[in-house]
């Protein structure tokens, strides 16, 4: 009798374990991330600690991840795509890889201009693309706007990153949205005429050129400035916030969307909401010296020390919609 009961007990125990293993398996979110491991793992760990939901992730560059999502189609294991730049997020939505998410939490935590009007992607951290100048060669009063860098007074004094990177494509796309194509073309043509050197491979190189006096001013995302200044605080570099009496600084985002064929949508939305919350916003932004999107949260003190600025309130969807137009425009004026 006792043996029979024991067998039943063991059977019940087995059933329970199988059930609990299955239910934990369901409680897992798979993320494809173009942000590197060190920029995502801390908040995924915090999320798992709070909810018990596991996060599995694969990191790669955005092109590879989009191609993977496209190839896998309905069979993709991915629930969420994390990538930088609205241009990339927009491209994912355009390729029908993401699905619209209605969430009052996301709508509350993320300002409207930093998320897709169709709710397919959401900005999670702000990257400001601003001017950095050589403090020995330029007085801040000489600077004013992105547009002003086209003025002949900057001849042979400007360095720019290559137009191949989405960052400058998004910037130019947003300028087209603001000024129209003809006026933007004049501005970008002016930039090219003022270049001190051929366009450079990345933002860090552009900053190093400015610091070395090979040019006087450049246009970069602030976290590259932060990284360089942390290494060498004595570099003769400073940030200038342009367009403050106009439309504001060009901002972009790192962000995420839920994949069209996500099988764990509920848990994935929970993760997305968590990433926009007070608990995760500093983790998301601070690791890369970016700004939280959630206006309730302050940036890291080092980042705050660069001063406050007005940001351009135009919706970032324009960076995607006008990307091709921007690329063609840059090509026309010889911006390589
Ligand atoms: Fe970057």
Brief characterization of the structure:
This protein has helices at residues 2-26, 37-51, 62-72, 86-94, 104-109, 166-179, 181-194, 203-211, 222-231, 265-276, 278-286, 301-304, 317-321, 323-332; strands spanning 28-33, 54-59, 80-84, 98-99, 122-134, 158-159, 217-221, 237-240, 250-259, 291-292. With 336 residues, the protein is of the alpha/beta class. The longest helix is centred in the first third of the chain and has 25 residues, at 2-26.
Task: Report what the structure shows.
It is a single chain. The chain is α/β, with parallel strands linked by helices and 336 residues long. It has 2 domains: 27-125 and 253-296, D-Maltodextrin-Binding Protein, domain 2, CATH 3.40.190; 127-250 and 315-332, Periplasmic binding protein-like II (D-Maltodextrin-Binding Protein, domain 2). Helices cover 46% and strands 16% of the residues. Strands 1, 2, 3, 4, 5, 6, 7, 8, 9 and 10 form a 10-stranded mixed β-sheet that branches. It is globular. The chain binds fe (iii) ion.
- Order of SSEs, N→C? HEHEHEHEHEEHHHEHEEHHEHHH
CATH level 1 class label of the largest domain? Alpha Beta
List the total number of helices.
Answer: 14
User: Do you know the CATH topology of the largest domain?
Assistant: D-Maltodextrin-Binding Protein, domain 2
Shape label: globular
Bound molecules: fe (iii) ion
Secondary structure category: alpha/beta
Q: Please tell me the CATH architecture of the largest domain by its name.
A: 3-Layer(aba) Sandwich
Rg calc: 23 Å
| Residue fraction in strands | 15-25%
Span from first to last CA? Answer: 84 Å
Name the poorly predicted regions: 13-24
């Amino acid at each position: 009798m006792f043996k029979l009961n024991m067998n039943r007990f063991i059977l019940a125990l087995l059933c329970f374990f199988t059930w609990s293993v299955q239910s934990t398996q369901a409680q897992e979110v798979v993320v494809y991330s173009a942000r590197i491991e060190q920029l995502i793992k801390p908040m995924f760990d915090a999320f798992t600690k709070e909810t018990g939901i596991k996060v599995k992730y694969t990191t790669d560059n955005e092109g590879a991840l989009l191609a993977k999502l496209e190839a896998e189609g309905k069979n993709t294991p991915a629930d969420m795509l994390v990538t930088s730049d609205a241009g990339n997020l927009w491209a994912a939505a355009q390729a029908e890889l993401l699905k619209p998410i209605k969430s009052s939490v996301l709508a509350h935590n993320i300002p409207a201009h930093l998320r897709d009007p169709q709710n397919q992607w959401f900005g999670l951290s702000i990257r400001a693309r601003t001017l950095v100048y050589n403090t020995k060669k330029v007085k801040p009063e000489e600077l004013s706007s992105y547009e002003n860098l086209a003025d002949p007074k900057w001849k042979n004094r400007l360095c720019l990153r290559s137009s191949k990177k989405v960052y400058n494509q998004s910037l130019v796309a947003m300028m087209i949205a603001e000024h129209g194509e003809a006026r933007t073309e004049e501005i970008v043509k002016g930039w090219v005429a003022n270049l001190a050197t051929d366009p450079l491979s990345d933002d860090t190189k552009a900053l190093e050129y400015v610091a070395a006096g090979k040019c006087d001013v450049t246009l970069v995302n602030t976290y590259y400035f932060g990284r360089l200044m942390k290494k060498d605080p004595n570099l003769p570099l400073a940030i200038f916030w342009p367009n403050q009496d106009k439309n504001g600084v060009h901002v972009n985002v790192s962000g995420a969307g839920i994949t069209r064929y996500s099988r764990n949508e509920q848990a994935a939305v929970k993760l997305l909401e968590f990433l926009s919350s007070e608990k995760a916003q500093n983790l998301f932004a601070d690791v890369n010296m970016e700004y939280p999107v959630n206006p309730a949260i302050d940036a890291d003190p080092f980042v705050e020390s660069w001063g406050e600025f007005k940001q351009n309130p135009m919706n970032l969807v324009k960076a995607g919609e006008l990307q091709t137009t921007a690329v063609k425009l840059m090509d026309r004026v010889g911006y390589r």
